[in-house]
Write a structure and sequence with these properties.
It holds the Pfam family NAD_binding_10. This is NAD(P)-binding domain-containing protein. Residues 74-201 form the NAD(P)-binding domain. This protein is 35% helix and 23% strand. It is an alpha/beta fold and 301 residues long. The longest helix is centred in the middle third of the chain and has 21 residues, at 145-165. The protein is globular. Bound molecules: NADP nicotinamide-adenine-dinucleotide phosphate. NADP nicotinamide-adenine-dinucleotide phosphate is lined by residues 73-74, 76-80, 97-100, 119-121, 138-141, 151, 155, 174, 176, 214, 216-217.
Length: 301
């Protein structure tokens, strides 16, 4: 099969007009379900001062280029939009599924995402998942006990099962830190739903599933056309907690101490940790706040 659609433009330095063969067969690796561009360039060249009939030995160049196609569930939310933006900036193809579809603000990355309007409980997965290399779920939120169980738990369980059915090789869940809370508080719909979703990810994707457990996430949250600058609180708090961590460590085993002591994390760092998860096949399992920051750092470097 020959396809140019998935392949980035390739320039071959050092080849004169005597390129004899360039082929771009694309293969979908059924084991890893990754899209690869495999191309082969055979080129012969002649030095300017050599006779025309001189031909050097042909050079064969074979390379595999992985192309990622990521589905973000909730791509227009606070965390989801940071993930979409970061993925687009890394040249990753992005599809978002959320009920209200495309956001109305005019940022340039918005045009580079495919926006599908739909509810995760009634999604036409054929339209959303085919060809995806990873699904990232930002589905979750607060509300009544029933609502929290449904959006944090059932919605994610449904999404994990759909992704598994479609053979998507990786599932990344934005979950939450447990704040060191006593177990009676962890039995609320929010945490129960989150933990149900986590165990579904880890059981269906034991060797590639990713669960990120951030605490408070700061950044600029858009609500009804306004930006709420959560970073005005989150950023200084993160710095203070880092500076005092040697002192506060002594209190970290106290129940619920993390409500005060868990460091906030920048929404862009959560997004970069997701990019790291998408691109690094050795990154799977449960990740704490510190590990999220480390993963983000790897992508920044
Ligand atoms: N924000 C924080 O400080 C924080 C901290 C720790 C963990 N988390 C977790 O991080 C995740 C993202 O949080 P967030 O603050 O970004 O939430 P958010 O802004 O409310 O975003 C939620 C997204 O999910 C979509 N959505 C909701 N119900 C849906 C459904 N039935 N079908 C399809 N899409 C649906 C929403 O879009 P539509 O309304 O258009 O459908 C929106 O895009 C959540 O799981 C949250 O628990 C957040």
């Amino acid at each position: 099969m020959t396809s140019f659609a998935l392949c980035p433009p390739i320039s071959v330095l050092g080849c004169s007009s005597s390129i004899s063969r360039v082929s771009f067969p694309t293969r979908l690796n059924s084991h890893f379900h990754k899209s690869y561009c495999k191309f082969q360039v055979k080129c012969s060249y002649a030095e300017p001062n050599l006779k025309d009939d001189y031909k050097s030995a042909a050079i064969d160049v074979v390379a595999d280029i992985k192309t990622e196609r990521v589905v973000v569930l909730g791509g227009n939310g606070f965390v989801g939009s940071a993930i979409c933006k970061a993925a687009v900036s890394k040249g990753i193809e992005v599809i978002s599924l959320n009920r209200s579809g495309r956001p109305t603000y005019p940022d340039s990355w918005v045009d580079q995402v495919t926006w599908i309007s739909g509810d995760v409980f009634y999604a036409n997965w054929d339209e959303v998942l085919v060809g995806a290399t990873a699904v990232v779920s930002t589905l979750g939120g607060l509300g009544s006990e029933e609502q929290m169980l449904r959006i944090n738990g059932e919605a994610n369980v449904a999404a994990v099962n759909a992704a598994k059915e479609f053979g998507i090789p990786k599932f990344i869940l934005i979950s939450v830190h447990d704040y060191n809370l006593p177990s009676f508080l962890l039995s609320s719909g929010y945490f129960t739903g989150k933990r149900k979703a986590e165990s579904e990810v880890l059981s269906k994707y034991p060797n590639s599933g990713v669960v990120l457990r951030p605490g408070f996430i700061y950044g600029k949250r858009r609500v009804d056309g306004f930006e709420i600058p959560l970073d005005l609180v989150g950023q200084p708090l993160e710095r203070i907690l880092r500076a005092t961590e040697n002192f506060t460590k002594a209190f970290s085993s106290l129940p619920a101490s993390d409500l005060l002591l868990a460091p906030p994390v920048n929404v862009d760092d959560v997004a970069l940790a997701v990019i790291n998860a998408v691109t690094d096949d050795d990154f799977f399992g449960i990740f704490t706040i510190e590990q999220i920051k480390e993963a983000a750092q790897k992508v920044k470097v």
